[in-house]
Amino acid sequence: MAAETFFARWSRRKAEAAAEPAPAPDAEVLPVAEAEPLPAPTLEQLSTLSHSDDLTPFVARGVDEGVRRAAMKKLFADPHFNVMDGLDTYIGDYSKPDPIPATMLAALTHAKDLLNPLFRYAEEEEKKEETPATSQEDDERPNQSM
User: Fold this and answer.
1) Number of separate domains in the chain
2) What is the per-residue DSSP string for 120-140?
3) 57 contact partners, CB below 8 Å, separation of at least 6
4) I need a surface site. Which of 60, 78, 80, 95 has the fewest CB within 10 A?
5) Is the dihedral of CA 110, 113, 116, 122 positive or negative?
6) CA neighbours within 13 Å on the CB side: how many for 63?
7) 57-77 pLDDT, tens per residue?
């Protein structure tokens, strides 16, 4: 066995391990006495607990769904768990419009036509009203030609 290859050595050791019998357990397994099942927790028991108490029996299998939900509500009502993480982008009610205030809209002079298309119409109407008034004033002035 001077130059045994890796795979030959691996195969030999695997065969030796399969041939050996499994080791017997050293300790005897003692039968576990069956514990008497605890009564299912109730909402009255839940109401007496604080946030620092163990809520495990209230969320175990076989517990009434209403008791389980009440235990989870009590757990997450704790301020330690009831923290918004700031990643809830869509938590707000975006169905209510938040219009741009008039002062800010007036400051956006570079986009007046885009943001308020009626603004240009109102300016045109003002100019139309001003131009006839100025022409009437010119008509009322006496002609001072020499």
Assistant:
1) 2
2) HHHHHHHHHHHHHHHHHHHHH
3) 38, 41, 63
4) 95
5) positive
6) 20
7) 888 888 889 999 998 888 888
